User: Fold these one by one.
Assistant:
Number 1:
Amino acid sequence: MTTATTDRRAATRRWGLLGAAAAAWVGAYALNEVAWTWLYRTVFGLDLTAGWPSMLHFFCYDTIKITLLLTGIIFIVTVLRSFMSIERTRALLGGKREGIGNVLAASLGVVTPFCSCSAVPAFIGFVASGIPLGVTMSFLIASPLVNEVAIALLLGLFGIGPTLLYVGAGLVIAILAGMVIGRLHLEGQVEGFVYETRLRGQVVDSTADLTWDDRLAMGREEVASILRKIWPYLLVGIGLGAVIHGWAPADFFARYAGPDNPFGVLIAVAIGVPLYSNAAGVLPLVDALYAKGLPMGTLLAFMMATVALSLPEMILLRRVLKPRLITTFVGVTAVGIVAVGYLFNAIL
Amino acid sequence: MHIKILGSGCANCVNLEKATRQAVDELGLEATFEKVTDYADIATYGIMRTPGLVVDDEVVLSGRVPTAGQVKDLLAAH
């Protein structure tokens, strides 16, 4: 057998398996709610409008639905992102001026694969290679703020409109916050060793020579690693969502944090920041609260505050940023999130 | 062979070290291990995503946790 034939067979097998997995995914997604309804109503004879059966039903089908959404979308996003790397991002940002640089940095922050453990080395790599501080901050803010787990869940739970609003708002916050930080000239608030670091050696772009098999394997690994990390948050989030869904009186939340409460967004952000969780834990709650009449802007602000401003990341960044710059970073980002919350509440 | 594991100590570098030690054992190599946790030192290797794997002062991988089999290929190619 020639190598070409072997390659062709391997390719057929690879895309065949992927196609079968995609078909299984679509089938499971389409049947999920119907199957649980059938099980509870027809097999167990339960009344699904009553409190606890409705809660149990919601919990089961929502758990499956969210797991499916996360699996599908994280896989696709990871495979697409394997074409982008932080090394390429830095090369693209090099020599860009503020303004254009901030817009580009925020956009690249959304598409570049990046985990919070790498926030510090990435920061050093950017600043030491001469990228302005404000542009670097636009990148660092956009990256966690516009998060693939949140995109996956928003798309599945709310549809394309709110998802685009979320991505757009995240970009605007990251661009403006980076520009403000750039204008404040806080370069002295970066630990000295960052500027003294000499980048040497050849930059390794670890994504340059990946094959399709590698990229698909990365997608599978990423799905497994994210699900392993977030399942407890997910179950707690869906559980709370189910309780709200089944039991909370319809006007309870609307009365205290609804469109008429001028402090709604502020309260949401103030609760969200210390409650550091991740999008997977927060979004099932957001979904249930939306159904109970909370406005979209307040909910988006709540979600952004929980994912973007996390204490563990601030502690990591303390290694390279002095307290005043960290405070400014948190302050500017929080103001941006609050502003987005009020803006969306006003226009939606 | 001198192997350095670059990373601040989060789960990724622990897993990278595990995979690398397994690969070294399976290949029957003589290797010394060193952990580089200082960010200034990590940066001098030009790495922006941890964990990083450095073999005899040459960066062979960064930004993801490979399987032991993948590390074996990398070490064999080195």
Number 2:
Amino acid sequence: MSESSTTSSSTSSSTPLHLAVALDGAGWHPAAWREPHARPRELFDAAYWTDVVTEAERGLLDFVTFEDGLSLQSSHRTEPDGRTDQVRGRLDAVLIASRVAPVTRHIGLVPTAVATHTEPFHISKAIATLDYVSTGRAGLRLRVSRRRHEAEHFGRRTLPRFGPEDLDTPVVRELTAELFEEAADYIEVVRRLWDSWEDDAEVRDVATGRFIDRDKLHYIDFEGRHFSVKGPSITPRPPQGQPVVSALAHQSVPYRLVATSTDIGYITPHDTDQARTVIAEIRAAQAAAGRAAEPVHLFGDLVVFLDDEPGAAAARLERLDALAGHPYTSDAKVFSGTPAQLADLLLTWQRTGLSGFRLRPGVIGHDLEAITRGLVPELQRRGAFRRSYEADTLRGLLGLARPANRYATV
Amino acid sequence: MSAPLKQIHLAAHFPGVNNTTVWSDPEAGSHIEFSSFAHFARTAERAKFDFLFLAEGLRLREQGGKIYDLDVVGRPDTFTILTALAAVTDRLGLTGTINSTFNEPYEVARQFASLDHLSGGRAAWNVVTSWDAFTGENFRRGGFLPQDQRYSRAKEFLATATELFDSWRGDEIVADQASGTFLNDARAGAFAHQGQHFDIAGQFNVPRSPQGRPVIFQAGDSEEGREFAAAGADAIFSRYSTLKEGQAFYTDVKGRLARHGRTHDQLLILPAATFVLGDTDAEAQELARDVRRQQVSGATAIKHLEFVWNRDLSAYDPDGPLPDIDPDPGEHTIARGRAQVRMYRDPLAVAREWRELAEANKWSIRDLVIETGNRQSFIGSPATVAETINSFVQADAGDGFILVPHITPGGLDAFADTVVPLLQERGVFRTEYEGATLRDHLGLAHPGTGAHQERAAS
């Protein structure tokens, strides 16, 4: 497969889009769980998640991401909100992804993990194992957490108390920079651990009695400001070599993390000008980091409410807002309209340099099917989306080559 | 009429990182590919076993400063593989070893509660307590924990995790779409724990799982380990699979329960056991000898001796006599990341005993290691093995066994097909699962809801 196809399709526009869906509870609108198809009592059952992911796979999507966090969900950016009228509680995202892996075959599975409070050694082997159980479809979406109350769940570090109005103060800016620097180290450690076994380290040499060739296992000897890790991993190098690493980014500090450390960055432009500006900043940082030649996908994030009937999605959003008691706002652009209108927008935005989109269904029970059965056929008609899965691994779907092992000597 | 027969509990241990796992056999498959785990789990479930067990290690073993290369090396992540196995099985319990030193209670409680939800109530946690700096080098906190604090941290870790599991009563989620009430309690999951090892507070974010809490297993044979298990575990692994030793351990541990206000049936004792089956007893004995030779190569025998001698013995001939130099009694530096090293608390005495044994029997180093270390627990025809297992359980040498085949992933197949039906004929092993959860299989009470009446931080 070519690294990134540039041949334009005969029927229309340009390079095929990549499409992902971000899964979170019953959907991204806080009142989503109150919709008829929401299944709010099943959010903690395996059946709900397998149904949702198999639907996404029916739509030939590249991958799904699973949101996660180490505290109850909150409408407040920095602290708990004590609300009881929205979905609260969630299962570990890595484990949801592992539970659905054996019952799906093609779709990529990208759980969220929080770098701030977890161990890179544990997450490295967990994602490697997800890659084994999904035979090459694992990814990782890394987050940092600045929330003081989340830190108090672990008791290992103390974070300052601050409110949304303090986000631009020097104290919070410094904290943010530090946590993202730590996250970059975290990704470095995770990646080194994935490479700490060469692919052919297991030799089973009956003649010498050696199960492995120990020269093909490597200490990673990472020493950083925040932690050090010896290695090697306990888990052999996963099928993809390096599962796909991704992060959501809103500002310069996280843009830099995307540029230096990830395979996919999710960004949240509200129009094409913003998209161009953000992409330029990330590409510049990527070049500055010496990664200009490495493919880094940039996906636009959008919250979507989709109905075939013109005006129906907007009316539905209004009804959901009324149930929630306030208009829905998001870091990402909130789109309501028909699948055809969304296809127009995606193809227009794609020309800014986006590889694809991560769509956040407003109501999973409604908008996920609108994506897989409405938007996808619409994009296919325009020659802008695959008609069947062309690869068995997530890297394959994304046109990313299987990386060489940094420790291997040829 | 005599007392009703005890019902046997059976579990399957995925063979792993140790020399009892034979990897050189043409039948030996992958220890990493999911298909191996799926085959093993499906066999165990077909045989109506109580659970599958997965061990853990967080640092590759070393010997003489080099990664140990003679045994199987490499394992998957415990939580990830168990949750994936929940997708290919319906009833089988899923037991994983998780270390209480290199993890934090909030995260581990979340993972077990998630596994319990995603498996419909089949999760179990084998709490282990490695503390060493060697393993700690892979983690943020390093090997900070003094050895004498490991059970203290383990106890507090388990108590804290239990507080987190109990922080949801189980009735908080109402999800009433009409009224817009998702939770009936804004303080759902509230906890506050302050102790020697953990000072944490807030709200746990996984609702109460089908079993309330995972089943708790404990492995460990020390005085502290036995007390720890008697005080709070649901099941204990032992390594005593012979009749006399099994009975002694059983009597000792069950005898500790009353002091903790617990009854005889609240703690199951499940020794790990290996087996070799043949069409006849004689054939099985011959096969068992072959397996032992495969398990202990000459190189493996020398390495095994180094666990005790704590010296480089690579110059010795495995087919020759035992070293006449004594073990180095200092801090163990040769073999790292090995539980076995800690089993030999008095290396000088072990060496003396082994030398006497070897001389009396004219054993070479390799013979000695084979004869003292790797004798299979149950060897014989299916009828013999079924009878022995049953008689051991009826004689209180255990409440059942955790079977460790010597080969992956098909090592359980013959047992499932030939021994299990015989146990079922005798009426000592289930023919169908009676319940849905692991607690049901093990006959353990559900911890109920609202085990914590007081809201910690209200």
